[in-house]
Predict the structure.
Amino acid sequence: MPAAPNSWTTMELKERQVITLFPSPLFVGKVSDLTICDRIEATLRAMKKAGEGTQDETFFMTRDDIHKRPEMKELSDLVLSESNRVLDFYRIKRQSHYITDMWGNITNPNHRQALHIHPNCLLSGIIYVTSPPDSGPTQFGDPRPGARMLEPAVTEMNQFNNGQFLVAPDKGVMLMWPSFMPHAVERGRNRTHEHL
Ligand SMILES: [Fe+2]
């Protein structure tokens, strides 16, 4: 009868590797000329003044078709050219692509918006046209169903154990992401309660 193996305590894997499956990219960049932000802000404030949108005490939102307006063309062109790069990144076959909806928000720095996705779109994005101090960050949530079912304590947060990612608003920064990725606006720390 062969002797019982006793080498099991020293067994280990060789050729270890970590393969990251199904990543969720966030595409980030900053406009080459920040004055575009001032032009957009002026346009949005004019829309607000004209009552072209919906409003309450902390929040103004334009209609969702502002990409069709001539004064938004420079932003629409930028969105189309940058999304073209993203579609290339994904190697997506296409004859053309287009913007389905675009809208602007003017909010109190402490405004909060619940986690949501944008169905029936491939890509979603934001451009920050102004960034008051202590504005609420944009929060991205883990898009994987069930991935946060157990949340053990960790010694250090990293991209493999963190269920959220925060981006502080920064004038001129544009973000794009796959539309299945949940996102929200967290409450800011600004306590001036500045009105719109
Ligand atoms: Fe959104």
Q: What stands out?
A: Helices lie at 35-49, 73-89.
